[in-house]
Design brief:
- The protein is 36% helix and 20% strand.
- By secondary structure, the protein is of the alpha/beta class.
- It has one domain (7-112): 3-Layer(aba) Sandwich (Rossmann fold), CATH 3.40.50.
- Helix 2 links the parallel strand 2 (39-45) and strand 3 (69-78).
- The longest helix has 19 residues, at 94-112.
- It is globular.
Length: 113
């Protein structure tokens, strides 16, 4: 990860939290400074209508401990995720598509500065 100029982390909600494997990986990086001031965008997807808000908050707290920089417009919740994508994982919801484009534009824009 240290070679990456930026990160986009996309995670499902699991039991109203971040999946243990992702949380564990990030916790191993706390003392490494590997993600220090690295631009990050975060997407949390959930089958619930809340969009994984608790998992999202937890992930943002962990990223704060890693001293990353969540870019402007770089935070996105995808509620009722099964209604937003088709069986081929193609975005079928226009609002979700536009949010994803804005998120990607924001992290790319951060690299241009």
């Amino acid at each position: 990860m240290s070679e990456a100029n930026a990160l986009i982390i996309c995670t499902p909600e699991y039991a109203k939290s971040v999946p243990g494997v992702l949380k564990n990986e990030l916790e191993w990086l706390v003392s490494s400074a590997e993600l220090y001031k690295k631009p990050v965008a975060v997407i949390t997807a959930s089958p619930s209508i809340e969009g994984g808000d608790k998992a999202h908050e937890s992930l943002l707290l962990t990223l704060g401990m890693l001293d990353t920089v969540v870019v402007e417009d770089g935070s996105m919740l995808v509620p009722s995720v099964s209604t937003k994508f088709n069986a081929n994982a193609t975005v079928k919801d226009e609002n979700t598509k536009q949010e994803l484009i804005a998120l990607i534009d924001s992290i790319v824009g951060e690299l241009d500065t």
